[in-house]
């Protein structure tokens, strides 16, 4: 009998569903909105506005993925 250890490949974990990933984006969006409302510096406002736009794009992409997920026929 061999003493060598067998190495197994890790199981591929399923990625979270789009609706689950939306929660993280929504939390980030809420924080960015709150920071934006408190900020006074124009350059920082511009950066935060860009961040908010990027987060909205991510949210839209996740919503599209959610629609695609639901549209797939189930067995």
Query: Gap between N and C termini, in Å?
Result: 45 Å
Order of helical and strand elements: HH
Counted up, domains total 1
Sheet/helix structural class: mainly alpha
Assembly status? single chain
Number of strands: 0
Point out poorly predicted stretches.
Answer: none
Beta content = under 5%
Largest sheet: none
Task: Outline the structure in words.
The chain is an all-alpha fold and 75 residues long. It has helices at residues 18-38, 42-71. Helix 1 (18-38) runs antiparallel to helix 2. It is elongated and about 55 Å long.
Spell out the blueprint of helices and strands.
Blueprint: H1 18-38, H2 42-71
Short summary of the structure?
This protein is mostly helical and 75 residues long. It has 2 helices and no strands. It has one domain.
Jot down its keywords.
68% helix, 75 residues, mainly alpha, 2 helices
């Amino acid at each position: 009998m061999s003493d060598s250890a067998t190495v197994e490949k890790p199981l591929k974990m399923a990625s979270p569903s789009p609706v689950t990933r939306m929660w993280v984006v929504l939390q980030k969006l809420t924080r960015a909105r709150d920071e934006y409302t408190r900020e006074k510096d124009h350059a920082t406002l511009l950066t935060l506005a860009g961040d908010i736009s990027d987060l909205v794009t991510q949210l839209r992409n996740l919503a599209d993925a959610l629609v695609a997920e639901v549209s797939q026929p189930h067995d």
